[in-house]
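BUG-309 | component: ligand-complex export | severity: low

The export step for magnesium ion jobs runs without errors, but we want the raw record kept on the ticket for reference. Input record follows.
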Amino acid sequence: MDQIDLNLNAGETLGIVGESGCGKSTLARSLVGLVPVTKGSVEINGQDITRFNAAQWRALRRQVQFVFQDPLASLDPRMTIGQAIAEPMMSLSPEWGAAERQRRVAELLERVGLSSSLQNRYPHEFSGGQCQRVGIARALAVEPSILICDEPVSALDVSVQAQIVNLLRDLQRERGLSMLFIAHDLAVVRHLSDRIMVMYLGRMMEQANTDALFESPKHPYTRALLASIPRPGRPLPSDDERLVGELPSAAMRHPGCVFASRCPISEGMCAMQLPPVYRDTNGSAACHFIGGNAAMSSTVLSRSLQTPA
Ligand SMILES: Nc1ncnc2c1ncn2[C@@H]1O[C@H](COP(=O)(O)OP(=O)(O)OP(=O)(O)O)[C@@H](O)[C@H]1O
Ligand SMILES: [Mg+2]
């Protein structure tokens, strides 16, 4: 990851989208200390967590919780799901006694659409979607103020997906929860997010308010991503809109724009020079040919700025 600059405001949902392997999970994990940050900072309420010691992390865990992408792997196979949900309460909210914990476990299970009578079962006795709901219940157990959700609904069928998305929305309204929401289903991200960040090969391509991003995407990568959403009655994306070629290796050095090799409007200098970040009231985008930056090439501009149908 490189050149990533983002804010998550209180009570807001920031969606993160991008192709598989672009670093969404790595970004999310680095925000909670599960991946070491080699350079840069991550501040929560003004404190740089990359410098935190064990005691400071412990205090933060109650505030920031994580829903993992792989639901089964994130649950301990030796614990019943009731124990799994009670565990963070025992270590982070010890003031709640056994009876209170028990009441909360039952309430959380019902809240994510699972019967509280299932709490003595083990993770392997559940489907992937059910385990994901247990993961969400566990993350909510200590009433965090920041929830980082890494593909929380990808393993769920549409009806359960809607239930969980609505649950997350309700929690946001009730508790002013701040959420970082990663998903590759753009419709779900649009439904939940106030703002969206688009990533490609470990870098930020564009960040914008949700409506602005969908209605007038600025970055050629965002356009390609939105054009790839299948819509009945709409022709398949043209060659200019479609992503062609292979994803370059993240291990290679990319002095310029990482999207240059697949970008329909790139010119020679794109791969050589780091694109400046263009900002307006709706957001920002890193491209040589956007807004004020576009003065560099008027011919390219006329080719590039067509909103996808
Ligand atoms: N532990 C690791 N060691 C080495 N490379 C890793 C590790 N975890 C992830 N990667 C690599 O880092 C890149 C980003 O992975 P990451 O899991 O963050 O992607 P992602 O955007 O979450 O993808 P997906 O949408 O498939 O979940 C990938 O190229 C991946 O192979
Ligand atoms: Mg991932």
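Assignee comment: Attached the raw record above. The longest strand covers residues 203-209.
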